[in-house]
Every structure is written in C-alpha cells, then in structure tokens.
Amino acid sequence: MTTPPTPPIRTVAVVGAGTMGHGIAQVAAQAGWTVRLTDAVPGAAARALERIRANLDGAVQRGKATPEACGDTLARLAPSDRLDEAARGADLVIEAVPEQLDLKRALFRRLDEVVAAEAILATNTSSLSVAAIAGGTRHPARVLGMHFFNPVHVMKLVEIVTHEGTSPPARAAAVAAARRMGKDPIVVRDSPGFASSRLGVALGLEAMRMLEEGVASAEDIDKAMALGYNHPMGPLRLTDLVGLDVRLAIARYLHATLGTATFHPPAILERLVAEGRLGKKSGQGFYRWPES
C-alpha cells in the first residue's frame, strides 16, 4: 500500500486526559499548535484543563513564563467528550489511555476510520508493542510511539518508537514534533520495554529485591543511586511516583515477553499492589505521601 505524504502539523488531538494526557496537551499547546483534548470519562478533559492552568500559573509565579504566554497556551486548548469530534481533522493524534493492549488496538482502529489517511497516529505506551497496536489499522506506516515522561511539562526525554513498517516521513515528523515541544527525542526500535522502561524497570525491581532481603532501607537504597550515581531520585521513590500498579503491569509484560528472571515481579511489589499501596496517588507505597 502506498503511504500517503505526511502533512505539516497544525492541529494535535490528545486522547486521554489523565496524568500523561493533560501534560502532553499542555506542551503541544505551548508549542503553538491547536490542541483538542478528549477522554472517555465525561468532564475529564475539562477538569484536565484546570490542572494545566495550575501548571501554567506555577510557571508564572516562578518567573518561567509570562501571563500573556500562558493565556495564549490556554486559548489553544479545547476539551471535548467526543473522540470523533476531537480527532477529526487532526494532523497528529497522541494516545495516552491506560496500558491495555486491547484497549489501545480498539482505539487505533477507531481513529484510523476518523482521521485523514496522512495523519500521524502516536501511542504514549511505555512498553507495549507498537506493531501490535498498529496491526489493526489500514495505514500502519503512519503509526509509531511517542513515549513521554512524567511530569511531561518538566521531563525532556521522548522516545520515538518505530516498528518495522513505520514510514521514514512519519518518523521524521514525530522527531520534529518532539523537538518543537521542547523535548530531546531518541529513536528506538519497537521491542519490549523500549530503552527507558527496560532499563528503569530492571533497576527498580532489583532495588525492591534488595529491600526484601534487608540489604538496606528504602531511603538508603535510593540515596545510593542519588548520591553515588547522580540520579535525580532513587528507584523506589520513582516507583512511588510512577505508581506501583503501573510498574507491576510493565514488569509482568516484560517478564512474559522477554522470558528473563530480571523482570519477574518481586513478592513485595505484588503484595503492596494487592494491599492498595500504589505510591503517591494512594498516599503510601515504599514511602508515605505527602512526605513530612
């Protein structure tokens, strides 16, 4: 099948208005694009705009942005409860829904029917197969991964994940889009965990095993990486911020697909998730939140 040419990006649609989606929408609007933000939960997109407003207000208070620039960013954002309405006419659609392959495949099939054939469809998955997500679409060459990091408006890295059928123009457009959003992109081949999740999860799971074995406290394990290796924070604190349930799902997926003991979920992770101790979002994980 001939791949349609990739047009200039003027309008971006973000599907999923949660932690990642609202951040992606913010940086896309700050880049100067018209942005439509949608979510399957009624009212979620409108509530996400309030989180974006709070982020921008904080930037003004810290002297990182002007009120005028923030006002312009908000003016470029439009919430919607209807997927078709948000996606139709978009040149770039970025999906940020939960990490469930069937959910993402169904969403991409629907998007494939709504957007123009030359529009780019990007998934923010942190570990799932981009090829599998693209497999149900008519134009898999325009499907790729754009894996952002939390908090999106702060973190500089974006992984551009290409499967075997991703077209060079789509890849180039995604790299350019990430740079316009103020990010520093890397290009990785579609493989379980890509580069960042595979490395990051391996480190986090080993830290959990050390905690289980009583090698050191959570605080001291984290301090070893922060002070000894100049990491911004330790792997256990980072797991609390990401969410223990998210890390567990990725670990299970990597263990199943790669088949190595490295990614076998430690018992402590399974137990804490079963107890509802999911990290910062639940108030307790390896640490108590908010911290005193």
Quick summary:
The chain is α/β, with parallel strands linked by helices and 292 residues long.
Walk me through the structure.
With 292 residues, this protein is α/β, with parallel strands linked by helices. The chain has 2 domains: 179 residues, Rossmann fold; 87 residues, N-(1-d-carboxylethyl)-l-norvaline Dehydrogenase, domain 2 (Orthogonal Bundle). The chain is built from 12 helices and 8 strands. The longest helix has 18 residues. The termini are far apart.
Number of strands: 8
Q: How would you describe the shape?
A: globular
CATH topology of the largest domain: Rossmann fold
Q: What does the oligomeric state look like here?
A: single chain
CATH class of the largest domain: Alpha Beta
What CATH architecture of the largest domain do you see?
A: 3-Layer(aba) Sandwich
The CATH superfamily label of the largest domain reads NAD(P)-binding Rossmann-like Domain
Please supply descriptive tags for the structure shown above.
single chain, 292 residues, alpha/beta, Rossmann fold, N-(1-d-carboxylethyl)-l-norvaline Dehydrogenase, domain 2, 2 domains, eight-stranded mixed beta sheet, 46% helix, 13% strand, globular
How are the elements arranged and paired?
Elements: E1 11-15, H1 19-30, E2 34-38, H2 44-61, H3 67-75, E3 77-80, H4 83-87, E4 92-95, H5 101-114, E5 120-123, H6 130-134, E6 143-147, E7 157-162, H7 168-180, E8 184-189, H8 196-212, H9 218-228, H10 235-242, H11 244-258, H12 267-274
Helix pairs in contact: 1-2, 8-10, 8-11
